[in-house]
Structures are given as structure tokens and as C-alpha cells.
Amino acid sequence: MAFKKESNLHKKKTLICLALSLVLAPIFYLFYIKLFIQLITYSEDKKFNKTEWFSKTEERWKMRNDIINNNLLVNKDSVYVKNLIGLPTATLNNPRKWVYNVGQHNEGMGVIFHYINFHTNSAFFRD
To answer: For the whole model, what pTM was predicted?
Structure first.
């Protein structure tokens, strides 16, 4: 009789462990997959700093979001823009459309090239 109670208790423990592992295993796997993706796609953003913009040209891409999100180039004239971020990389056959190559960085298993486009009184970026 004691053996049968012990056997039933063992079966209950086994079923509980099996159920927990079926529920918790996918949660842990999803957590680690998400963590892995965040690690390989990490992108550092910095506040715009004019001194760093001109001295650390390979790290300009880190400041591009601050320029765009805070509208640092919106409603500004060409003299102000040239003074703030320098001469454009290209003009796309139109003196009113400027392109600034702000660098590249590795993300995941590839390389992303970043640009800021400036057209008269607007600015936007593209990757």
C-alpha cells in the first residue's frame, strides 16, 4: 500500500515537472533569442555635438537620430546647415538637394550605410 502511494506521488511529480518544462522552455528560448537579436543589432545613439561631428567622422551615424528627431535642420537656411554639419557629400544634380553620408556600421550580419538628405527647408534620413 505504501508503495502504491509512493508510485502515485512520483507520477504526479513527473507530470508537474513535464508540464512546467513544456511551459517554461519556450519562454526561456524566446527570451534568449530576443536577447541575441538585441545584442547583434545594438545601435548606439548620441546627442549631436558639433565638435565630435567634425572630429569623429566615422561615428556621425550615432548622432543622426538626434539631428532628425530634434529638427536641427528644419526651417534652416543653407548657410546655417553648412556651418552646423559642413559641406554636403553630394548634391544629386540639384543645388537644393544635399546628401550627407554620415557613415556606416555593422548591424547583425551586415553593414548599414546612413545618410541625411537635406532639401531646402526639410531634412530626413535614410539607411
So the answer is: 0.59
